[in-house]
Write a structure and sequence with these properties.
Layout (H helix, E strand, L loop, with lengths): L2 H7 L3 E5 L2 E6 L5 E7 L2 E2 L25 E4 L6 E5 L2 E5 L11 E5 L3 E7 L5 E12 L2 E12 L5 E3 L2 E4 L1 E2 L5 E3 L6 E7 L10 E3 L2 E3 L5 E3 L10 E7 L8 E6 L4 E7 L6 E8 L11 E8 L14 E3 L4 E12 L1
Antiparallel strand pairs: 1-2, 2-3, 3-4, 5-13, 6-7, 8-9, 9-10, 10-11, 11-26, 12-25, 14-24, 15-21, 16-17, 16-20, 18-19, 20-23, 21-22, 22-26, 23-24
Length: about 325
């Protein structure tokens, strides 16, 4: 561990309930770097050393691990505002900056981060409890416009859950189709293709089960969107079959009616070097990764105004 990694590690914040422990890295966007149940790590590990970020570094040049918060955009973009054009970097601002710890206890932690591309601040409170044989992580978010002009914004959770061959992604039965945002090698076709779930046709005419985890040598990297989802559909789960655990996200149907789904089995980053092997279930305020892509999901926050929403993560035996 070099000096930079050591400095980051020394500032870890841990909360726990029974055999479940969460680790936060305040200096690195209050990243949830680890969700561990006994000896089982549930999050994607770093593909590069943990180190302070710059305002311009690409996401694939950093550690690309754990759970970050994407505000005010996932994709790099430029948006027009009343204060002039605002340039938002790759995966947003908040994974790049140190967050301020507000409150920390054995089972709860609250952090606040300030954006730099737009006058926005995000507060995230995390509370971990043991529920029967499993655990519940409740996350409460609040975004505030700290500026003097209206500010457009979007939010997307970015939890990279470790995955392996034989795992199962489970969506509500009513979800039969998703919109393709992108697919490595165009294996599912061009962007904006409607893709059947879970059995989908590949661009080469073959059929694949998108819900079934694949080995990292498969080289898969797909991003899809579901939604808008109804109240009864506002959940997604990853079943870790070998570990005998299910990770289920429940999200607010009015505030975050969209679900991004990043399925990566060795297909990203491009080029040589370590790859992700993970599934990211990403509740989102938007049906698109770019803040510059507008639609009925677009949101603008007035000066001084705040907006709040919850999310629940359930970890349970199967």
């Amino acid at each position: 561990m070099d000096a930079k990694e050591k400095a980051v590690a020394e500032e870890n914040v841990l909360i726990r309930a029974g055999d479940c422990t969460l680790t936060f890295l305040p200096r690195l966007g209050a990243k949830i770097s680890s969700i561990r149940v006994k000896d089982h790590e549930l999050m994607q590990g770093p593909i590069a050393p943990l180190a302070p970020r710059t305002r311009t570094v690409a996401f694939d040049k950093a550690d690309a691990s754990g759970w970050d918060e994407c505000v005010p955009s996932v994709l790099e973009c430029t948006v027009d505002t009343a204060a002039g054009p605002a340039h938002v970097p790759d995966h947003g601002d908040l994974w790049r900056v140190a967050w301020e710890p507000i409150t920390v206890s054995n089972t709860c932690a609250t952090f606040r981060g300030e954006c730099f591309s737009l006058p926005l601040a995000l507060e995230r409170a995390a509370a971990l409890t043991q529920e029967g044989k499993g655990w519940q992580l409740r996350l409460d978010y609040k975004v505030t416009n700290t500026g003097n002009h209206p500010a457009p914004w979007s939010w997307c959770a970015h939890p990279l859950f470790a995955s392996e061959a034989g795992d199962r992604i489970v969506l509500p039965d009513s979800v039969r189709e998703l919109r393709l945002a992108g697919s490595g090698g165009a294996r599912l076709g061009p962007a904006d293709t409607r893709v059947s779930w879970p059995m989908a046709k590949l661009a080469n005419g073959k059929t694949t089960d998108l819900g079934l985890g694949q080995p990292p040598e498969s080289g898969i990297g797909d991003k899809l969107f579901a939604g808008p989802l109804a109240a009864s559909e506002s959940w997604a789960a990853l079943e870790r079959r070998r570990l005998g655990m299910r990770i289920r996200l429940r999200f607010h149907p009015a505030v975050t009616p969209y679900l991004g789904l990043w399925i990566c089995y060795g297909g990203w980053p491009d080029g040589p070097g370590p790859k992700e092997s993970c599934v990211a279930m990403e509740p989102s305020t938007s049906a698109a990764d770019s803040l510059a892509t507008t639609g009925p999901w677009s949101r603008v926050l007035a000066p001084g105004a705040s907006f709040s929403w919850p999310m629940i993560v359930e970890i349970e035996p199967i």
